[in-house]
Design goal:
The protein has about 220 residues and is α/β, with parallel strands linked by helices. It contains 9 helices and 8 strands. The strands form 2 sheets. The chain has a 5-stranded parallel beta sheet, with helices on both faces. Helix 2 crosses helix 3, helix 3 packs antiparallel against helix 4 and helix 4 packs across helix 5.
Length: about 220
């Protein structure tokens, strides 16, 4: 089974995917991680991807698809896999479908994590990270015991630039322009399921598993 979680930044899709990976044993396939392994192993596609990355350029879609194909055909993906952060565009979604079709496989479920913009901005802008150990906190959901200070190492807590309100709004605009059409594409193929991501994390995870038909 191949699962694609979709949703805007801050919707919780990454966190929920990690929970699913831990419970079912399916690998979570992040393009960044796949690139790093391919480059480390000096595969042909890995080295080709590195050429673009070293120049600060986006890796072309055909190279990305090739690297994903190499990864998804490995034995640990036989039972299932979770695609993390891909596809991001309609062109990538169609190319992914074509590649999987050549393998006599297909995307089984696409789960869209839905949440309104105001809550997303609140979630993301409230995040703080320790500049020393990287521990994460949230001013509302998981505040530190002492304001501005990490509970774990005593380091200073900072707000990352991409968690500032103006940057968040721009990230959401990019998502709407690029990734939202991917959801519509899979909806037309009757593969799209939706979950209310404003629920508690436990309720979201329960619904997520129900939507993909995973029971344990």
């Amino acid at each position: 089974m191949i699962i694609i979680p979709l949703g805007p930044p801050g919707s919780g899709k990454g966190t929920q995917s990690k929970k699913l990976m831990a419970e079912c044993g399916w690998p979570q396939l992040s393009t960044g991680d796949i690139f790093r392994v391919a480059i480390s192993n000096k595969t042909t596609l890995g080295l080709k991807a590195k050429e673009f990355m070293d120049k600060g350029e986006l890796v072309p879609d055909d190279v990305v698809i090739g690297v994903i194909k190499d990864r998804i055909t490995q034995s640990d993906c036989d039972e299932g896999s979770i695609l993390d952060g891909f596809p991001r565009t309609l062109i990538q979604a169609k190319a992914l479908d074509k590649m999987l079709s050549e393998l006599n496989r297909s995307i089984d479920k696409v789960v869209l994590f839905e949440i309104n913009q105001d809550e997303l901005v609140s979630r993301l802008s409230g995040r703080r990270v320790c500049k020393d150990c990287g521990a994460m906190f949230h001013l509302v959901a998981a505040p530190p015991k002492k304001s501005g200070t990490c509970d774990h190492c005593g380091g200073n807590l900072i707000q990352r630039k991409d968690d500032q309100a103006d940057v968040i709004l721009n990230r959401l605009k990019v998502y709407e322009n690029q990734t939202a059409p991917v959801a519509a594409y899979y909806g037309e193929k009757s593969k799209l399921q939706k979950v209310d991501a404003s629920q508690s994390p436990d309720d979201v995870y329960k619904t997520f598993k129900e939507l993909i038909g995973f029971h344990k």
